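Propose amino acids for all 175 sites.
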């Protein structure tokens, strides 16, 4: 099964000139969803991973499922103002704006080995913000995994410049 066939493209969303890669169509197909989660988890089976960090919002879906598959904890990296306890914050730039990510201060323990999971890798801004949060909390980042990668936006290079491996399941060259 070609994973990319289950991802719908929506032109001019959320603004003109953007081709939005919509993974909600992939989630509708139980076989495609299961294969996606298995493929995201596979590179880490047998590794000593303590937690998965999923980036809001669709990274929660895939990240929690990968954490379940690997039998490890899950940490939500949320947009500012949505976590009820003390947080670490990291501001970052997006392909079409800026935002702030937060994690609870007690979510990651020193030396925890973490995987970062999100649905899409574009510029790498949100993933790098999550990485900085994890490192700031004393954890280490074993790798990052994405369902979709847009290589033209060079997010992979930003993450790899931090000496962190990137795994993506499918790529779309046109943005």
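Proposal:
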């Amino acid at each position: 099964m070609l994973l990319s066939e289950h991802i719908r493209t929506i032109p001019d969303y959320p603004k003109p000139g953007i081709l939005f890669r919509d993974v909600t169509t992939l989630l509708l197909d139980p076989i495609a969803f299961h294969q996606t989660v298995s493929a995201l988890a596979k590179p880490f089976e047998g590794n000593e991973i303590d937690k998965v960090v999923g980036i809001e919002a669709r990274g929660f879906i895939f990240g929690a499922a990968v954490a379940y598959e690997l039998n490890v904890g899950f940490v939500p990296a949320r947009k500012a103002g949505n976590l009820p306890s003390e947080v670490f914050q990291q501001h970052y730039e997006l392909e079409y704006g800026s935002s702030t990510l937060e994690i609870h201060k007690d979510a990651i323990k020193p030396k925890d080995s973490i995987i970062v999971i999100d649905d899409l890798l574009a510029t790498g801004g949100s993933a790098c913000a999550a990485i900085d949060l994890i490192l700031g909390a004393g954890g280490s980042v074993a790798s990052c995994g994405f369902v979709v990668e847009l290589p033209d936006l060079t997010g992979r290079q930003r993450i790899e410049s931090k000496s962190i491996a990137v795994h993506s399941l499918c790529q779309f060259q046109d943005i």
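The mean pLDDT is 95. Residues 8 and 146 are 16 Å apart (CA to CA).
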